[in-house]
Write a structure and sequence with these properties.
With 362 residues, the chain is α/β, with parallel strands linked by helices. It has two domains: 33-236, L-asparaginase, N-terminal domain (Rossmann fold, 3-Layer(aba) Sandwich), CATH 3.40.50.1170; 250-361, Rossmann fold, CATH 3.40.50. 32% of the residues lie in helices and 18% in strands. The chain has helices spanning 2-23, 30-33, 66-71, 76-79, 97-111, 128-138, 161-172, 262-269, 290-298, 322-325, 335-345, 352-361, and strands at residues 36-43, 81-90, 118-122, 145-148, 183-186, 189-192, 197-198, 207-208, 216-219, 222-225, 250-254, 274-279, 302-307, 328-329. The strands form three sheets. The protein has an eight-stranded mixed sheet, sandwiched between helices. Strands 11-12-13-14 form a four-stranded parallel sheet, sandwiched between helices. It has a two-stranded antiparallel ribbon with strand order 7-8. The structure holds D-aspartic acid.
Length: 362
């Protein structure tokens, strides 16, 4: 009896095994379980080359292509399935509206696909904070977008690019980074796009979020978050650049002792639709420029009071009566970021009350 049962099982076993293997899903291979991360390369020092391994200033930015950047860090393939695209190759002091629109449209197209879990953008450090904030306002996805750069060229001793790129790819593929807005990741630190700024011309720890603080760290091959932004960003944005091929002109007037309206008047004559006044102190307006600012406002130019100080709230109706002047206060945005928000605001409205709402929202 038992031997008969055993015999039937033994002969049926291979068939059962075959049926089970057909029915049971293949266990995902290790590669299939890794996140899919696209690296969009734009240039900068991370792609820079110097005359020797000790050249850390006076090198050439934007020389090394994306495939070489990826090949230089074979560890990338252990943490993500990476694909590279050289979207353009520039030193980021040459960033402009056309590059921003091209980058934003490519990011949104890639993130709309189910086969992309996150994006890394390699970028020059000079304008990382501006590109990061621009994308923070126009990316239409909760998926991670991480901007990374380097302060030493790829040819230098202890170049920081490879480890920065490795950390950025891990971060872009991390579920913890979903919904956090555009992130800037260098020097093992995670900063938010809205408040990060470059604070030193040459040191590795240059990217800081003074006073408001960084969001977390990269350590032990994973992100450690401690904070996140309270402001609207990415998928929750009201801004849409998909149909735009240019952005409104907005210029920055820098405040200093003994200034006069020459620069302001030149920008207005050049067709500026908005002016960011980077005033001294709490956005103070020097007497010689007040009439020119009011004249610009009367011509329909939007005036935003910001400050050259770099930290703190620009108080509405503080150093100037914004209600009477019909000006906008920049809240805590530095001048270069206030400019980006005003450019995008002007794609939707010229109503100063609505624009002020945007400065308190984003
Ligand atoms: N010129 C700088 C830039 O491309 C180099 C760098 O720091 O990335 O922003």
């Amino acid at each position: 009896m038992v031997s008969g049962l055993f015999h039937r099982l033994r002969t049926a076993f291979p068939l059962l095994l075959l049926l089970f293997s057909l029915a049971a899903p293949e266990p995902a291979s290790a590669q299939q379980k890794l996140p899919n991360v696209v690296i969009l390369a734009t240039g900068g020092t991370i792609a820079g080359t110097g005359a020797s391994s000790t050249t850390t200033v006076g090198y050439s930015a934007a020389k090394v292509g994306v495939e070489a950047l990826i090949e230089a860090v074979p560890e990338l393939r252990t943490v993500a399935n990476v694909k590279g695209e050289q979207i353009f190759q520039i030193a980021s002091e040459n960033m402009n509206d056309a590059y921003w629109l091209q980058l934003a449209k490519r990011v949104n197209a890639l993130l709309a696909g189910s086969d992309v879990d996150g994006i890394v953008i390699t970028h020059g450090t000079d304008t990382i904070e501006e590109t990061a904030y621009f994308l923070n306002l126009v990316v239409k996805s909760h998926k991670p977008v991480v901007i990374v750069g380097a302060m030493r060229p790829s040819t230098a001793i202890s170049a920081d690019g490879p480890i920065n790129l490795y950390n950025a790819v891990i971060l872009a593929g991390s579920p913890d980074a979903v919904g956090k807005g555009v992130l800037v990741c260098l020097n093992d630190q995670i900063n938010g796009a809205r408040d990060v700024t470059k604070t030193n011309t040459s040191t590795l720890d240059t990217f800081r979020t003074p006073e408001l603080g960084l969001l977390g760290y990269m350590q032990d091959n994973r992100p450690h978050f401690y904070r996140q932004s309270t402001r609207r960003h990415t998928a929750d944005t009201e801004f849409d650049v998909s149909g735009l091929d240019r952005l409104p002109r907005v210029d920055i007037v820098y405040g200093y002792a003994n200034m006069d309206p020459t620069a302001l008047n030149a920008f207005v004559a050049a067709g500026a639709k908005g002016i960011i006044h980077a005033g001294v102190g709490d956005g103070s307006l020097a007497a010689p420029v007040r009439p020119a600012l009011s004249a610009a406002r009367s011509q329909g130019v939007i005036i935003v009071r910001s400050s050259r100080v770099g930290n703190g709230i620009i108080a509405r109706n503080g150093e100037a009566n914004d209600d009477d002047l019909d000006f906008v206060a920049s809240d805590t945005l530095n001048p270069q970021k206030a400019r980006i928000l005003l450019m995008l605001a002007l794609t939707r409205t010229s109503d100063t009350k609505d624009i002020q709402r945007m400065f308190y929202t984003y």
